[in-house]
């Protein structure tokens, strides 16, 4: 019994170790932060060397990169997309707007705290975060995955009612 | 015991009844409508007795007075006459049965008297051995058909009747001049006698009367370019009359042309021209039929085309070709009669002659439509119907025609067959098309005659070769003129 | 016995060669972009990641079977390609049969993608099939040229007949060029990548695929890369006398293809087909003409 | 029991008449009656399995005895056609279950089968012509029971059928006139010594007739609309039987009556085939490519099948007219195979129409969940149509390709192979738009077709699979037929073909086994991994947009519209348009000719007088001059 658990754990650990080397991010640019992505993935900073590449559809991707402020209309799509993604899946809050609303702190149309609605694994602070910061964020996420701590998607399932309630409050579903 | 095998009876019976009915018509109007039926039935009995003799190869003669031939009016029945007169009376019988139920507006006594006269005249032409008789009979025929075409007294029937009258008179005068010229040269009117004497007549002197007689007959025979009365007259007439005109009148006229050309004049120089005329008739008839929207008018044009077809076959001039021609004549008479009769039923059911209005008719009145289809298929020459075998025979003889013209006509006949097929199939299509239209149910009494005719066609289809063998005999007898000549001239001595 | 063993191991071999070629290609593209690039085994990592997804979605049976058929048919196709010294299954089917066997995989893929109901997938498939009609024309003509020249349709014989340096690339350069362009089109590289075209149809057929489905598709794709390059190698580069030369030649093909791939933008699908029907076809026909006149 | 050929021919007709009479009693009586009489021919045919009978006289026309006979080729085809008739009849019962036409349709059906047997058994040019005409006539009436446009189709069909019939009739009469006999043997004997023009003209006339029925390219105009608008069971017959009858006659006439030797004697050989056969090869190839390309851009399920059917008969013509043992084997095998797989396609599409009431592809979709058996049948059929192993279409196309290689005809081979790829395109379109993709809301209640209706598709699907994996079974019949036609039959085994001159070895079971192996491996990988979760069709990647039931997001209209753009320049050259222009011209001319009959009395009289005068003048002057 113990052996099997150990084996399974080891298996998961190996998988996590490999998995962190291949992270596909959803090319879903919600806001101005997306402007920092091209330098991140092209010649200078080359995210691909970590196995991070932009991908197109929600089904294929592992990382939901929320690049900046989320207004209410976008949130609806964002939630749909997140739910379409296949676990394990990770959310990166990108820029101050996802943390506290940033410069839109007093806007009626903008959702201020992303982690009320989606389980964010890593925040990258800054307005904008530089490509170095973005890469650092990715590295952090990779480390978390390796350690088995990037469990946002589990949290979302476990606290589904909580997230739904929060989403409903804003979206009036 | 009266000798029933007397051709004279075929003329006398109808004539007698016609006059009788004129006399009794003021008193017994209702009974007159059975007169044509009785007449043709009696005629058929006579034809049966004649037929027994004819089929054994003899030529049955009848005279009007006690004189000897060639100085009397003589009626001669050989196999060709027999088949024509048989057709006349069978169709006459069935169509008069149809007419009894078709002509509803009383009084109809004049109609039936005229119809009796029509039967009489047609029978007369078919059996007469006298050239002047041909003229007289044609005048009777024309007069009765003028009356019948215009019988409905509607605007177009009167117009059509008038056109018919004008051209019929033209035809009659041509015919008369031709007969007069012949009489002037030979001093006789008996066909056989003329034939023997014509050997001593110069070619031009022979030619002019022939051409005149030919064109005189060609008007009734609906040959191009003298057939323009037909497409008006046939549709305008009551359907029974259309059937009679199409099935019988043209056929008898063509019979007369055959008789005059082969037996009397023995004329081969004219054949290429006849060939061309027939070809044009066929071609224009079918083309014009293709564009018609009026059912009966289409059938009328189709009659022109068919006439062209069997004249074409005849004008090849061989025994096989005459045989094929006669077979096609039989096919055409029966099937076209059915088509006109059925068209009558259809028109009655829908109240319009337009083909497109027939949409869905076949879904209501299946029997009528099937009769139409069968007859049309036989007419087009779709195997295994009788018409196919006659068409086959015609096509085969066309190749006998020397030179390029033979192949051309071969191709043209096939082309015409395509066109004819298309316009008839178009009617089939419309008949069985889905539609919400309500039609009256067919009158079962009216269906009887076409049904019997189709039955005859089916029987013919099952034994096509026996018919073709018989027509071959006819052609054989026709080609060997001397048999006819000697038996007519010597038969009653 | 050895032959049977080789036969069974070939798909695995093909898979790893394909992975290697793909990884090499990604590395090379990165270097052309002046990037460091992912590690050589990155495709393998991607596949492992995809296969190890915790949950997968399905739109129906055919959606699941699509990738399965794709991989299965790819395995089948591999078996019909000869290896140096090994005839594999070529005695049971020739070039013509091979052309049709190659299609089975696309059929499976197309059916699976179609079942998802996603318009992007359908458009992608429609484009893929149209493109196939485009590149098949020069490919067929090029193949015919070889058939006419050698009088055989046996793939193994093609390989043996070119031994030494009698490569068709040198003997029939025009045909080889046409064949190369066609194979290149079949690979779906720029400028012929209208099928996946991420910016237009969101990776086309693969749009709804994720997780193990996509993993299988990538396995299949790796084998397909092997097949296309091996096919070209056998037809035009004289096959090989041993397995390493064989892989080397495939690598050469990939290198040339990658050079083109990195510099071109994308054709519209009509233009791609028109292009295939114009220049490569003309070149192939010219090659055919030369063989016809001179070869006999 | 000893059954004569005439009896086989009359069996279905008799059954049809009985059934028609029985329909007065009860529908079931009628159905069972006719079913029995459709099964009977199999038993009756059984005794002719290995016999060649040449003259069984049944009628005498124009002094000639007409005869029936049977040989390996007609035996094979009559067996196949009996099967297809049986299945189509089962299908027809359902298709017409609500229509009042069903009794009449069954009657016509029976006559059609009789006539088809008649053509197959005919041993003289008149019999075959008679039966052929009857086929055309009955098909005309059967078509009319179809969809809205079927009445136009009827007219188009019959026009072409009449053209073909009269063309053949010309040849029949002409040959009879020259040879004095109708019998195949006598005609063949006459032709071997006949002058070249006669041989050529009669051959062309006959071939026009056959190829119209086989819907080969310049003569195909009637086919698309007819196939599309006819009732589905009749479409099956049109495509799987009537078309094959035309091709059967083509085979018989080319190889048995005219003979390749005759052609080689009178004309030069091109690519190892007589010139006229070479021309026919090109006609076949053009039919393939144009038929395929047009099929790709169709929007109507049955139109796709119609054009596909045209294209596939191009393959058959191409194979047959190669005139080599390999090519003829391929052509004959494709006759069998095409009948089978196109039958399935028509049955499945018919079933879909039966359930949904539309054949418009853009209205359908997603039916795989509702009609899985239809889907599987169609899947097998499209694999066969595209010529992909291991289904039956592959083997016959393979033979044709190899025959082309053997004759060294790279261009034709290119066209044929490209047609194969193209066929993949249109069959995918078909299955995609019907069975895959979004299920419209209105079809949520659709059920699988009734079990009896599945029988036809399943039987044929099994046959397609069987003949595909074990090509030896149909090859047994085909090689016999080939021997009858005077070729050295190609060698075959149960599993495929051994290595022989011009033909690379082929072993379909090994391909299938390898394919299955690959599947098993892939399936193992797939099913050992975490399970899948089924999602609703609306849970779909749509760039984050949320789909709703009322949105039609499926891509099914104008599926290959970009391909349409590519071939648009060629549309200007469409054969239909040439014919339309021609017909327009003929109509104008005909209309002018018709106006001779103006309806105006003055015109008539003056015309008559003028012409009379002219004739009289000609005669009188001519008479003087003579």
If you had to describe this structure to a student in words, what would you say it looks like?
- Chain A: One of its GO terms (molecular function) is quinone binding.
- Chain A: This is NADH-quinone oxidoreductase subunit B.
- Chain A: InterPro entries: NADH_UbQ_OxRdtase-like_20kDa, NADH_UQ_OxRdtase_20Kd_su.
- Chain A: Residues 29-140 form the NADH:ubiquinone oxidoreductase-like 20kDa subunit domain.
- Chain A: It comes from Caldisericum exile.
- The complex is a heterotetramer of chains A (173), B (493), C (296) and D (626).
- Chain A is α/β, with parallel strands linked by helices and 173 residues long.
- Helices cover 45% and strands 14% of the residues of chain A.
- Chain A has a single domain (2-171), classed as Rossmann fold (3-Layer(aba) Sandwich), CATH 3.40.50.
- In chain A, strands 3-5-7 form a 3-stranded parallel beta sheet. A two-stranded parallel sheet of chain A has the order 1-2. In chain A, strands 4-6 form a two-stranded antiparallel sheet.
- In chain A, helix 2 links the parallel strand 1 and strand 2.
- The longest helix of chain A has 18 residues, at 2-19.
- The mean pLDDT of chain A is 84.
- Chain B is 75% helix and 2% strand.
- By secondary structure, chain B is mostly helical.
- Chain B has a domain at 279-462.
- Chain C has helices at residues 2-32, 42-51, 61-79, 95-115, 119-150, 155-161, 168-171, 173-187, 198-201, 211-236, 243-263, 269-295, and one strand at 56-58.
- Chain D has 626 residues and is mainly α.
- Chain D is built from 23 helices and 7 strands.
- In chain D, the strands form 3 sheets. In chain D, strands 1-2 form a two-stranded antiparallel sheet. A two-stranded antiparallel ribbon of chain D has the order 3-4. In chain D, strands 5-6 form a two-stranded antiparallel sheet.
- Chains in contact: A-C, A-D, B-D, C-D.
- At the C-D interface, strand 1, helix 3, helix 4, helix 5 and helix 10 of C face helix 15, helix 16, helix 17, strand 6 and helix 20 of D.
């Amino acid at each position: 019994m113990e052996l099997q658990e150990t084996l399974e754990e080891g298996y998961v650990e190996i998988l996590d170790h490999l998995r962190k080397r291949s992270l596909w991010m959803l090319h879903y640019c919600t806001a101005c932060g997306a402007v920092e992505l091209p330098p991140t993935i092209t010649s200078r900073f080359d995210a691909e060397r970590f196995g991070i590449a932009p991908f197109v559809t929600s089904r294929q991707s592992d990382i939901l990169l929320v690049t900046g402020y989320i207004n209410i209309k976008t949130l609806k799509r964002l939630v749909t997309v997140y739910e379409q993604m296949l676990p394990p899946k990770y959310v990166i809050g990108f820029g101050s707007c996802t943390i506290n609303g940033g410069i839109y702190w007093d806007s009626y149309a903008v959702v201020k705290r992303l982690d009320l609605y989606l389980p964010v694994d890593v925040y990258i602070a800054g307005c904008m975060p530089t490509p170095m910061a973005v890469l650092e964020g990715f590295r952090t996420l990779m480390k978390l995955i390796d350690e088995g701590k990037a469990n946002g998607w589990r949290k979302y399932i476990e606290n589904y009612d909580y997230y739904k309630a929060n989403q409903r409050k804003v979206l009036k579903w | 015991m009266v000798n029933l095998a007397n051709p004279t009876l075929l003329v006398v019976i109808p004539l007698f009844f016609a006059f009788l009915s004129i006399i009794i018509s003021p008193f017994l109007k209702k009974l007159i409508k059975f007169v044509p039926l009785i007449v043709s039935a009696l005629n058929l009995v006579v034809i049966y007795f004649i037929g027994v003799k004819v089929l054994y190869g003899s030529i049955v003669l009848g005279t009007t007075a006690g004189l000897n031939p060639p100085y009397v009016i003589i009626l001669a029945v050989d196999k060709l006459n027999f088949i024509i007169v048989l057709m006349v009376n069978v169709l006459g019988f069935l169509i008069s049965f149809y007419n009894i139920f078709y002509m509803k507006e009383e009084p109809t006594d004049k109609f039936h008297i005229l119809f009796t006269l029509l039967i009489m005249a047609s029978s007369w032409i078919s059996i007469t051995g006298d050239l002047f008789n041909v003229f007289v009979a044609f005048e009777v025929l024309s007069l009765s058909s003028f009356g019948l075409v215009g019988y409905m007294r509607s605007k177009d029937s009167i117009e059509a009747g008038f056109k018919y009258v004008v051209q019929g008179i033209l035809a009659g005068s041509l015919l008369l001049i031709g007969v007069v010229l012949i009489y002037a040269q030979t001093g006789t009117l008996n066909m056989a006698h003329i034939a023997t004497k014509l050997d001593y007549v110069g070619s031009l002197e022979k030619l002019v009367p022939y051409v005149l007689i030919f064109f005189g007959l060609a008007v009734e025979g609906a040959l191009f370019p003298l057939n323009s009365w037909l497409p008006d007259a046939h549709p305008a007439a009551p359907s029974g009359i259309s059937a009679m005109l199409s099935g019988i009148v043209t056929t008898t006229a063509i019979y007369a042309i055959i008789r005059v050309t082969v037996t009397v004049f023995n004329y081969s120089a004219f054949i290429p021209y006849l060939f061309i005329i027939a070809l044009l008739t066929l071609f224009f008839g079918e083309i014009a039929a293709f564009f018609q929207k009026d059912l009966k008018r289409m059938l009328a044009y189709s009659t022109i085309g068919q006439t062209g077809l069997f004249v074409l076959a005849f004008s090849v001039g061989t025994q096989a070709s005459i045989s094929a021609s006669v077979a096609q004549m039989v096919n055409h008479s029966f099937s076209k009669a059915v088509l006109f009769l059925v068209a009558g039923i259809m028109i009655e059911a829908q109240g319009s002659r337009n083909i497109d209005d027939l949409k869905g008719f076949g879904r209501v009145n299946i029997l009528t439509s099937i009769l139409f289809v069968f007859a049309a298929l036989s007419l087009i020459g779709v195997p295994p119907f009788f018409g196919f075998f006659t068409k086959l025979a015609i096509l085969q003889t066309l190749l006998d025609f020397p030179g390029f013209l033979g192949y051309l006509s071969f191709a043209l006949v096939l082309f015409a067959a395509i066109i004819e097929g298309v316009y008839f199939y178009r009617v089939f299509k419309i008949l069985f098309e889905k539609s919400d239209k309500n039609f009256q149910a067919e009158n079962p009494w009216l269906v009887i005659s076409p049904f019997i005719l189709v039955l005859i066609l089916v029987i013919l289809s099952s034994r096509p070769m026996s018919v073709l063998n018989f027509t071959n005999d006819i052609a054989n007898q026709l080609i060997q003129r001397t048999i006819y000549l000697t038996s007519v001239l010597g038969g009653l001595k | 016995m050895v032959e049977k063993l080789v036969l069974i191991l070939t798909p695995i071999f093909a898979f790893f060669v394909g992975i290697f070629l793909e990884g090499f290609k990604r590395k090379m593209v990165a270097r052309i972009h002046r990037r460091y690039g992912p590690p050589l085994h990155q495709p393998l990592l991607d596949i492992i990641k995809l296969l190890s997804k915790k949950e997968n979605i399905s739109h129906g049976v055919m959606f699941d079977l699509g990738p399965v058929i794709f991989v299965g048919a790819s395995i089948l196709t591999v078996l019909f390609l000869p290896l140096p010294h090994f005839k594999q299954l070529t005695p049971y089917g020739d070039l013509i049969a091979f052309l049709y066997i190659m299609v089975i995989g696309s059929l499976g893929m197309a059916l699976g993608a179609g079942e998802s109901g996603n318009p992007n997938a359908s458009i992608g498939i429609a484009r893929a099939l149209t493109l196939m009609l485009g590149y098949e024309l020069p490919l067929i003509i090029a193949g015919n040229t070889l058939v006419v020249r050698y009088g055989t349709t046996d793939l193994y014989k093609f390989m043996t007949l070119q031994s030494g340096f009698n490569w068709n690339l040198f003997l029939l350069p025009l045909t080889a060029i046409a064949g190369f362009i066609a194979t290149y089109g079949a690979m779906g590289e720029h400028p012929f990548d209208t099928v996946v075209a991420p910016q237009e149809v969101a990776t086309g057929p693969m749009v709804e695929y994720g997780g193990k489905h996509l993993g299988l598709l990538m396995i299949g794709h790796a084998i397909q890369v092997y097949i296309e390059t091996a096919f070209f190698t056998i037809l035009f580069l004289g096959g090989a006398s041993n397995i390493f030369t064989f892989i080397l030649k495939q690598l050469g093909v990939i290198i040339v293809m990658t050079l083109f791939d990195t510099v071109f933008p994308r054709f519209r699908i009509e233009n791609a087909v028109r292009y295939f029907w114009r220049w490569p076809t003309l070149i192939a026909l010219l090659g055919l003409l030369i063989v016809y006149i001179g070869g006999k | 029991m000893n059954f004569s050929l005439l009896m086989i021919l009359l069996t279905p007709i008799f059954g049809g008449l009985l059934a028609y009479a029985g329909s007065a009693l009860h529908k079931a009586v009628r159905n069972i009656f006719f079913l029995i009489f459709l099964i009977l021919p199999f038993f009756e045919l059984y005794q002719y399995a290995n016999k060649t009978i040449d003259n069984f006289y049944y009628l005498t026309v124009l002094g000639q005895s007409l005869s029936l006979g049977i040989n390996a080729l007609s035996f094979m085809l009559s067996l196949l056609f009996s099967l297809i008739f049986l299945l189509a009849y089962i299908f027809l019962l359902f298709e017409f279950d609500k229509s009042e036409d069903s009794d009449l349709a069954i009657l016509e059906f029976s006559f059609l089968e009789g006539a088809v047997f008649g053509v197959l058994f005919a041993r003289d040019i008149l019999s075959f012509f008679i039966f052929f005409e009857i086929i055309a006539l009955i098909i005309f009436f059967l078509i009319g029971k179809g969809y809205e446009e079927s009445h136009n189709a009827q007219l188009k069909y019959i026009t072409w059928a009449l053209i073909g019939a009269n063309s053949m009739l010309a040849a029949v009469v002409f040959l009879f006139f020259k040879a004095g006999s109708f019998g195949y043997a006598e005609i063949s004997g006459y032709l071997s010594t006949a002058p070249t023009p006669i041989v050529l003209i009669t051959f062309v006339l006959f071939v026009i007739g056959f190829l119209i029925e086989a819907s080969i390219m310049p003569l195909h105009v009637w086919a698309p609309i007819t196939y599309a608008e006819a009732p589905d069971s009749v479409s099956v017959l049109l495509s799987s039987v009537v078309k094959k009858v035309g091709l059967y006659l083509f085979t018989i006439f080319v190889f048995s009556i005219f003979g390749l030797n005759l052609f080689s004697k009178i004309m030069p050989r091109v690519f190892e085939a007589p010139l006229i056969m070479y021309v026919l090869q090109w006609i076949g190839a053009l039919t393939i490519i144009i038929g395929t390309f047009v099929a790709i851009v169709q929007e109507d399920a049955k139109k796709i099948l119609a054009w596909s059917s045209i294209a596939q008969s191009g393959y058959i013509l191409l194979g047959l007219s190669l005139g080599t043992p390999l090519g003829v084997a391929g052509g004959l095998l494709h006759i069998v195979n095409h009948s089978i797989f196109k039958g399935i396609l028509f049955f499945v599409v018919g079933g879909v129409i039966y359930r949904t009431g539309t054949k418009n592809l853009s209205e359908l979709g997603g039916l795989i969940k509702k009609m899985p058996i239809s889907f599987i049948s169609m899947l097998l059929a499209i694999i066969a149509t595209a010529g992909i192993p291991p289904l039956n279409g592959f083997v016959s196309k393979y033979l044709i390709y190899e025959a082309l290689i053997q004759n060294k005809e790279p261009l034709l081979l290119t066209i044929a192979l490209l047609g194969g790829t193209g066929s993949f395109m249109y069959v995918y379109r078909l299955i995609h738009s019907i069975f895959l993709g979004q299920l419209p809301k209105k079809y949520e209640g659709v059920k699988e077709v009734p079990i009896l209706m599945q029988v036809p598709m399943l039987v044929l699907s099994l046959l397609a699979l069987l003949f595909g994996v074990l090509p030896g079974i149909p090859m047994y019949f085909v090689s016999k037929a080939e021997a009858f036609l005077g070729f050295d039959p190609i060698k075959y085994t149960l599993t495929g073909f051994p290595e022989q001159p011009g033909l690379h070895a082929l072993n379909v079971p090994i391909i299938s086994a390898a394919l299955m192996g690959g599947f098993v491996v892939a399936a193992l990988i797939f099913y050992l991994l975490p399970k899948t979760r089924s999602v609703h069709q609306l849970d779909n990647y749509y760039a984050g947009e949320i789909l709703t039931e009322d949105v039609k997001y499926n891509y099914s209209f104008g599926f290959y519209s970009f391909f349409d753009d590519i071939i648009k320049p060629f549309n200007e050259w469409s054969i239909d348009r040439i014919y339309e222009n021609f017909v327009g011209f003929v109509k104008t001319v005909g209309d002018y000719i018709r106006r001779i009959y103006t309806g105006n009395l003055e015109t008539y009289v003056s015309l008559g007088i003028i012409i009379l005068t002219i004739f009289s003048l000609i005669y009188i002057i001519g008479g003087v001059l003579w």
